[in-house]
Amino acid sequence: EPEVTQTPSHQVTQMGQEVILRCVPISNHLYFYWYRQILGQKVEFLVSFYNNEISEKSEIFDDQFSVERPDGSNFTLKIRSTKLEDSAMYFCASSEQPFVDLRDRGRGETQYFGPGTRLLVL
Amino acid sequence: KQEVTQIPAALSVPEGENLVLNCSFTDSAIYNLQWFRQDPGKGLTSLLLIQSSQREQTSGRLNASLDKSSGRSTLYIAASQPGDSATYLCAVPSTDSWGKLQFGAGTQVVVTP
């Protein structure tokens, strides 16, 4: 069964360093997402991406964060200058499409999550 | 603003007992509700997605019900097994944004042999 993959599984970095987290979404999916989960807290939305541009971003997703789809398969999250509070598990997700018809609120599409990258900022 | 709550935070049951997990949300104008399983230190596995037009969705031993008017969903797991031990999360799309899932804090389940 197709699945979302993420690399690396763990990353340790020094405060102020740049990190790039990588994701390979499911191949026929068109919508991509990043979420994060700080230890002991809820999973939080960071950003959604469609048609090579950001669809929506949360307040967490400030200028230190960026996303890119550099080729037909990869989807990356870059943190330019990491802070201690960026330590978290980062999840990539993808979905085929959010709705068949935006006017039809009875339908939606499952988001499939990757295994996550555990980021530790020292 | 949508708030998603899961009670209880933790649950322990003996093997073979049925599990009942609750999820409540404050804004009933949801598009769908998704249940996930999370194993310690691992990713999220999608279990079921129940659409706003449905009242129930089943997959094997899992059954999810949805009552939009009361802002509740329940996940039933029949005949629990030790392998069902995990944290179960529910999530709904934000009412103003199709793709942004808002998660509950989860219910940590332990099934004892």
Q: How would you characterize the overall build of this protein?
A:
The complex is a heterodimer of chains A (122) and B (113). Chain A is mostly beta strands and 122 residues long. Chain A has strands spanning 5-7, 10-13, 19-24, 31-37, 43-50, 53-57, 65-68, 75-79, 88-95, 112-113, 117-121. In chain A, a hairpin with a 5-residue loop joins strand 4 (31-37) and strand 5. Chain A is globular, with a radius of gyration of 14 Å. The termini of chain A are far apart. By secondary structure, chain B is an all-beta fold. In chain B, strands 2, 4, 5, 9, 10 and 11 form a six-stranded mixed beta sheet that branches. A five-stranded antiparallel beta sheet of chain B has the order 1-3-8-7-6, with no helix packed on it. In chain B, 39% of the residues are buried. Chain B contains no helices and eleven strands. In chain B, strand 7 and strand 8 form a beta hairpin. The A-B interface holds A 6, 31, 33, 35, 41-45, 48, 50, 55-56, 58, 89, 91, 93, 95, 98-99, 102, 105-116, 118 and B 29, 31-32, 34, 36, 41-46, 49, 51-53, 89, 91, 93-94, 97-106.
Brief summary:
The complex is a heterodimer of chains A (122) and B (113). With 122 residues, chain A is mainly beta. Helices cover 0% and strands 47% of the residues of chain A.
